[in-house]
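INTERNAL AUDIT FORM
Audit reference: QA-55
Scope: verify that the stored structure record matches its stored sequence.
Auditor: D.O.
Record contents follow.
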Amino acid sequence: MYLVVIGWMYVVLMMSVAEATNTTGSVLGAIVTFFLYGLLPVALVVYLMRTPQRRKAIQAREAAELQAQKAAQASADPGASGHAAGAAEDERIAPVRKEP
């Protein structure tokens, strides 16, 4: 993609030079040619072509933030592991069991 952009900018630069050096041309015409045929269209095309890459980067960043939030919540909540508390009972109290 960048090779096409570089090639087009070269063509537009040569058009601007031809406009500026022509006997009926002007430097202002060369500047207008460079901006209207070169920079503005190329900037628009590059912006539109990079939209999928930007979208993927945003989704990856949001997924990483969501995963970090889940990890922070899991480490902050002591009961999040799903295991029973081991040393919470008093040693003098017998554990509750079914009769054999």
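Auditor finding: record pair retrieved intact. Residues 60 and 66 are 10 Å apart (CA to CA).
Action required: none
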